[in-house]
Design goal:
Strand content: 15-25%
Helix content: 25-40%
Largest sheet: 8 strands, mixed
Number of helices: 27
């Protein structure tokens, strides 16, 4: 039998998981070394739970029971345990059975499953999580169904099975409920899994940000030092809970630091501690984490450095830190973190190194860099913006941007999400969560380390092979507002937090400077907006003139947004006056308040106090909906029940739900009349343009597109062909299909490829042309000449045998011998625009569909668009229009438009092929010549490999880097 060190031990079944209440547990296979743990665990289970498990009084386990429950072959008999602090809190096991219910081996594909959860941990979602993991193990071992016998009174366990989302049958036999579950994942089971993931991860963040008590571990007795600074910041912010200081060097007797009780350890406090901030040297962190874990601390913020950012030894120290924290059920921010802030009135927590907490506001800010965090806090503070929450995660070894997207999605105190990211550990999940969140509130991202090709120091995450440009395109497809700099991040955040979304791209421009108006007009055109003719109020305009002009512009039905430009005006004496910024701000706010459905931005030059006055909100009101469309709903099969069970902030009384707004309720409060001000027209217009594009995405995403459905697709035939090509023992490295096999597979999906015949000599070229029919094209297939007509490797429109023979002689004389060139002959097709369609699979991002024009446009200039697979008709339509050279498809400079409908259909067919058959890991169609009517695929490559694992479909687990 196996132990944890045995080579047969299935270590890949081990997983850290987040439970319903936000705490963590570890799931692992039960081994022969677990006998004492099993007995200790069983002693803590109530008699009632034991009765439900064994259908009879069962006060203790016999030696035979212990042996049976700890000895498994991990094929026909498997046991998993959920552990905290190394001790069992729950177990699950399955035994393979035959049709008569007796023990069996493969090929029997059914197993009996049974759970036991310690009473103290019931209600935390432990059994539901174990069911996900034992089901995945069973599928891996060829088991397709679970059978379970449950007493009717055991309603909790019946609910675990019935709520799992699997197809199931239920009957009542011999006084018990008999359940049979089909373990094949379904849309419903995936939706249930993701809803539970959302609830658990959001709750873990809520526990971190809304603690009832905080201990600063490493607070020095003398002023100075990181721990003392954080403690001072916690107190200065007015934290509403209990605060403690911990310093192991304190002597006996009562102590106080900064006026709060101080102790030698967390255990010595004698009261519950929800959050611990660790500001001790790295070598002392394990001792502090153990102290916290043993005394019920829920969350950690680790400010200590010298982890993965310092090299391989630090990287291993970071892994050990995460393992230790999770083993005690804790989640952590850091290490090397800057800290966290929650401005909610019921919390007022500044557990960071920021000396001054930002004012309360509607922006949630996450950054992976402390330095960038300082800059963003400073920039937002100077411009009067308030935050709901702030997190600077440092090395983000545990909690990451994904977790905070889960939290902010339903947080009623956050209207806009801003993220500075240097790495994305799970792009597939991030894209999914960002799309769901963006359907409810704006998500603005600036990504660092885009071009270095390496992961930033300290970020131990898998590196995706997909270029950053592709990842960026996929984020935009998910509704993310992607900006290039932290300045643009602040600019966009200010506008989105204080103003409604524009209904369209029409922009009115008014102000007292003709030149500044023209600069704004040009910037609008550059950003793809539709500016109206600027209204020049002249330099003599007064605040009253501004108010009247702004009110008129906002009332104009031909205007969707307004940019106000302002410079010091000319007074009665003829001298320039900077004026009182407060007076002008009051005038603009008064006009904007009368028409709250349209956004307003101000561009100003040297008007003292204007920006500060505009940023000061007069009051908080409940606005009109951001868009006229229906309230954003969770994506299909991605339900999002309320994430929080209690609220420590001002969002509601403890114990009240804080989920998303009910469907018929108005949106959450927005700070009214905060008009963003910008020192340059380009910055204001760029922020406005991002809001316009985001608003358009919101409107369009409210009506999702349709996937391609075509009657001529032969999915079973394609599957049989793939199985035949890969064979019973496929090469893990994959295989590139022959021209014939690639053409046959694509043909199964209605994608005909024009035949290409080899021409190793002139005579064979003539024979090939006779078979295909003139006119023909002569091409080389040598890699360095392929798809490079500019190098002379292609001869077109050869009308007869004489022209073909001459072209063949010229080609070989100029470029090399036939065996080097690999000449081929192909029939001519109608002229059109040469394009390229590709699809590929990345383990981190998923399947990606790409489109561009063939040749230099896509290869040299990178003018290629990308969408995630499965693509919809809307995705295909946008894909064609996303490239900069798209005008060539729609009739440029008098050329005839090509058949874009046929091109969109081709994209959808390729998407279907890759989505239906994950073994198809790469498809390349080049060139695809799109004519006025129809298109022709002249070249195709297809690569097959064993289907890569879909981590997003497996059981929930925390990443381990």
């Amino acid at each position: 039998m196996t132990t944890a060190s045995d080579p047969a031990y299935p270590a890949h079944w081990e997983a850290d998981v987040v439970l319903r209440d936000g705490g963590t547990a570890r799931i692992r296979p039960i081994t022969t070394e677990d006998a004492e743990r099993l007995v200790s665990f069983y002693e803590l289970v109530s008699d009632e739970s034991k009765y439900y498990r064994f259908f009879a009084p069962y006060p203790r386990l016999s030696a035979k029971d212990v042996h049976r429950f700890t000895h498994h072959d991990y094929v026909d008999r498997v046991g998993l345990a959920a552990t905290i602090g190394g001790e069992f809190i729950a177990t699950v096991r399955y035994d393979r059975i035959n049709a008569q219910g007796r023990p069996a081996s493969a090929p029997a594909d059914e197993a009996e499953v049974a759970f036991l959860v310690q009473d103290a941990h019931q209600g935390r979602g432990v059994a539901s999580t174990l069911l996900e993991h034992i089901a995945a193990v069973a599928r891996e071992r060829g088991i397709r169904r679970f059978a379970a016998e449950v007493l009717p009174a055991n309603s909790k366990m019946i609910k675990v099975f019935t709520d799992a989302g699997y197809q199931q049958k239920r009957s009542f036999e011999d006084g018990s409920v008999h359940l049979t579950l089909d373990l094949e994942p379904t849309a419903e089971s995936l939706a249930v899994q993701r809803a539970r993931e959302h609830r658990a991860e959001a709750r873990s963040v809520q526990r971190l940000l809304s603690p009832r008590s905080v201990a600063v571990v490493g607070a020095g007795r003398a002023p100075g030092g990181v721990g003392r600074a954080v403690l001072r910041n916690v107190l200065d912010a007015g934290f509403t809970g209990r605060t403690y200081a911990v310093n192991s060097a304190l002597g006996p007797g009562p102590h106080a630091i900064e006026g709060v009780p101080a102790y030698t350890s967390v255990g010595a406090i004698g009261e519950p501690v929800d959050l611990a901030i660790l500001a001790v040297p790295a070598e002392r962190v394990p001792e502090a984490v153990a102290d916290c874990g043993e005394h019920g601390v829920q969350s950690l913020v680790v400010l200590s450095a010298e982890y993965a950012e310092s090299g391989e030894s630090g990287r291993e120290r970071q892994r050990a830190l995460v393992r230790q924290a999770r083993s005690h059920g804790m989640r952590l921010i850091g290490p090397n973190a800057f800290g966290i802030i929650n401005t909610a009135p019921g919390v007022r927590l500044n557990a960071s190194l920021a000396p001054e907490a930002p004012p309360a506001g509607r922006i949630g800010l996450f950054t992976q860099s402390g330095a960038i965090g300082i800059a963003l806090l400073s920039g937002l503070y100077r411009r009067g913006a308030g935050l709901s929450t702030f997190i600077s995660s440092g090395n983000r070894a545990d909690l990451s941007g994904n977790d905070f997207l889960q939290y902010w999605y339903e947080d009623p105190d956050t209207d806009v999400v801003l993220l500075y990211l240097e790495s994305i550990g799970n792009p597939r999940k991030f894209t999914r969560l960002a799309r769901r969140t963006a359907a409810a509130k704006p998500v603005v991202v600036v990504k660092g380390a885009r071009h270095s090709g390496t992961t930033p120091p300290g970020h131990a995450v898998p590196v995706t092979k997909v270029p950053d440009a592709t990842v960026s395109a996929l984020l935009r497809q998910a509704g993310v507002i992607l900006v290039g700099t932290v300045t643009e991040l602040v600019d966009a955040g200010l506008l989105l937090a204080g103003q409604p979304l524009p209904a369209g791209p029409r922009v009115a421009i008014l102000g007292n400077s003709e030149s500044l108006g023209l600069l704004t007009y040009d910037a609008c055109l550059t950003e793809g907006l539709r500016p109206l003719r600027p209204l020049d109020l002249t330099t003599g305009a007064t605040p009253a003139d501004f108010r009247a002009a702004l009110a008129a512009a906002l009332a104009d039905d031909d205007c969707d947004a307004v940019v106000v430009t302002a410079i010091p005006w000319v007074g009665e004496s003829g001298a320039l006056e900077s004026g009182d910024g407060q007076v002008l701000a009051d005038a603009l706010r008064a006009a904007a308040a009368a028409a709250p459905a349209k956004p307003v931005a101000v561009v100003h030059v040297e008007i003292g106090g204007l920006a500060e006055a505009l940023s000061a909100a007069a009051r908080t009101v409940r606005p009109t909906p951001l868009l006229s469309s229906a309230p954003a709903q969770p994506a299909p099969h991605d339900p999002a029940p309320p994430a929080f069970e209690e609220r420590g902030s001002g969002g509601g009384a403890p114990g009240s739900p804080t989920g998303g707004q009910p469907e018929n309720d108005p949106p959450p409060p927005r700070e009214a009349h905060r008009i963003p001000a910008y020192p340059a027209a380009e910055r204001a217009v760029r922020a406005l343009a991002e809001a316009v594009r985001y608003a358009r995405w919101r409107r369009e995403s409210a009506e999702p597109g349709r996937a391609g459905e075509y009657d001529d697709i032969d999915e079973p035939g394609a599957a049989a062909l793939i199985d035949r090509i890969l064979g019973p023992a496929p090469d893990a490295r994959g295989t590139t299909l022959s021209t014939e096999d690639a053409g046959e597979l694509l043909g199964r999906y209605g994608i005909p490829v024009r035949p290409t015949l080899p021409a190793p000599d002139a005579a064979r070229a003539v024979e090939a042309a006779a078979r295909l029919g003139y006119p023909v094209a002569l091409k080389t297939t040598a890699p360095h000449l392929r798809h490079r007509p500019d190098l002379g490797g292609v001869r077109l429109d050869l009308a007869d045998e004489h022209q073909l023979a001459r072209a063949y002689a010229e080609l070989t004389a100029a470029l090399g011998k036939p065996e080097e060139l690999g000449p081929v002959v192909q029939a001519m097709v109608p002229r059109g625009v040469d394009t390229v369609v590709r699809a590929s699979i990345d383990s981190a991002v998923g399947a990606v569909l790409s489109f561009g024009l063939s040749g230099a446009a896509s290869e040299l200039l990178g003018d290629t668009a990308h969408r995630l697979i499965p693509a919809t008709d809307r995705d295909a339509r946008e894909l064609l229009r996303s490239i900069r050279t798209a005008p060539l498809l729609f009739g440029w400079r008098g050329s005839a438009p090509v058949d874009t409908a046929a091109l969109e259909e081709l994209l959808l067919r390729v998407s279907r092929l890759v989505d239906d058959h994950p073994e198809v890991v790469a498809v390349g169609l080049e060139p695809v010549i799109v004519a006025q009517r129809g298109l022709s695929v002249l070249g195709a490559t297809v690569r097959l490999a064993p289907a890569p694992p879909r981590t997003d479909l497996g059981p929930r687990r925390l990443p381990s880097y």
